[in-house]
Every structure is written in structure tokens, then in C-alpha cells.
Amino acid sequence: MFKITLRAARVNRGLTLEEVAGILKKSVDTIRKYEKDSSHIPRDLLVSLLKLYQVPDEHIFFGPESSFHGFIHSACKDNSVLQAAL
């Protein structure tokens, strides 16, 4: 199953930080904070974001965004090695 970050989900819906903050009546800094690290996102905010982005929670990566990018980079390297072996 694929996973995406909250930032990717927002961008996929064509929304800016400012638009999301306005819709949810939160500050831009709050939305940005949880896009950078969703480890401790409040449940009510998460539910609101998932509804807005129209993404099921099982498709969202939870944790620091930098860890997600490290995971993807690592997976791409492993995939390249696997493809080279074929």
C-alpha cells in the first residue's frame, strides 16, 4: 500500500497552506507544523484534514516528513539494486 505525507495530500488536492488554514480556522503555522511532523497531530485536526484531502488515514505517513523522504530514498535504492539483478 502506498503512503503519502500530509503535505503531499494537500498539494494533490490543489490547496495552499493558507487555504487549508482558512477552511479549518487554524493558523498557517499549525498546518505547517503537522505537515513537517505528524507524529503527535491532534485527532480532531487529523480527521478534518483527511476529510478535506479526501484521503483515508491508512494512506498517510505519520511521523517526521524527513523520515518519510529517507524511507523513499532507501526504497528507491533497493529497487534499483533489485532491477539491476534482474
TrEMBL record:
Residues 6-60 form the HTH cro/C1-type domain. It comes from the Bacteria. It comes from Paenibacillus antibioticophila. Gene3D superfamilies: lambda repressor-like DNA-binding domains. GO terms for molecular function: DNA binding. Pfam families: HTH_31. Transmembrane segments: none annotated. This is HTH cro/C1-type domain-containing protein.
